[in-house]
Specification:
The structure is a single chain. Helices cover 28% and strands 20% of the residues. It has 472 residues and is α+β, with helices and mostly antiparallel strands. It has 4 domains: 2-67, Penicillin-binding protein 1b fold, CATH 3.30.2060.10; 85-197, Rossmann fold; 222-315, Rossmann fold, CATH 3.40.50.11140; 341-414, Thrombin, subunit H (Beta Barrel), CATH 2.40.10.170.
Length: 472
Amino acid sequence: EQQKLRLVQAGYHLVDTVYDHGEFAVRGSIMDIFASGQESPIRIDLFDDEIDSLKFFDPETQRTTTTLKSFTVLPAKEFPLKEGRSVFRDRYSEFFPTANPKKNPIYQDVLDGIASPGIEFYLPLFFDKEQMQTQSMFTTYLPKNCIVITTNDIDTDLTNFWKEVMRRYEDRRHNMDQPILAPEELFISPNHLLSALNQFPRMLVSAETIEEKAGALNLKTEQPPKLPVDPKKEKPFSAVKKYIDEANHPVLLVAESAGRRESLKDALRSSLGEIPNVENFEQFQISQFAIAITNAPLDRGLLLTDQLTVISENQLYEHRVVQRRRKRQQEVSEEFLIRSLTELSIGAPVVHIDHGVGRYAGLITLAIEGQDYEFLQLDYAEDAKVYVPVTNLHLISRYSGGDPDLAPLHKIGTDAWSKAKRKALEQIHDVAAELLHIQARRQSKPGFAFELDQSLYMQFASGFAYEETLDQ
């Protein structure tokens, strides 16, 4: 109970099932938490007062994946929602004396302890003036020896951002039902930010040469040459081989993904021999290889004069290589999977695996043997109702048969839904049988194995302009 209280005070929300950041759940000796700063939620298995195991788990399937030794529970919110309510109420009246707070839903949510969307735009109201003066600049959290890296045109970017903030403020500042803070109260002004950044050593990233003076110098870098692959030549990688042979420093080849790395190695093998893999740039420096290959999302190469050359795929092929990361596919399409009650609206058509298409009627509480339980109410034809425990959400999915307004409403106790499922299974069986028949005919006929031209294949693959699937 003490840990629950501490998590609630840190801004975490107690739920039945953890799906999103800032949520935690407790079931006996098991505690699930989706901590801020973590990519996946964590399951804590307790044995009395000791932690027996820590494991990440998939919020979709609720199954554990990998183990970890420790983790840090960061606050779920940037503001003390519970403790700061009284300060928020006073500061709101101070900034908006003529506004009616009852007409602002965010104000009402704060008083009820709810962190609703948009609350971040009232962040300064949770702290008094003295706290804001000491904590408002993020640079106060940086170590004194921190090196700040910015682009050379940061001044222009900050100016454009500030203009957009001011424009949006002017568009919305007259709505006193939902008043907004002035930009200077909520954001750091460009001049203030640049002044703060200038207190630290700075590194400017720019293709232009700057004037060298005390504390300022230019890194001696050059744009590496284009080394186009010509598949029409007998030796399509001759330009690459010539450059590497003449280089008097190490050369690192970079492919977009592990699969492309291996394909590039195969294509270069006849010209450059076997090229060793390295995990990253640091390992390449330690290895002292004259040439190596790795995978990284690098758009362009780099030439450090007489020290190192990094060659990307884009220097070799005419088409730009861009590999978009695809999230792991789920067994059930996320478009139709119902993961939480917040995704259901009253009256929406839903499909129960055993009863067919009904309508979602809301969440109700029923007493069973003296204990209250939560159920989803599904309405069917002729006023029939089905109550589904919230723990059995996996039995329900969204209706995906077309226009929701035209979705059927099945009748409980008939075989209409069973017939529909049986017919669908028969159609699936027919399609599967046809595919097997086609594959059997293919395998029964003699084939011819064409010799693969690696350079042509790589050129073809580099022109693929679509998002790759997992097996691709």
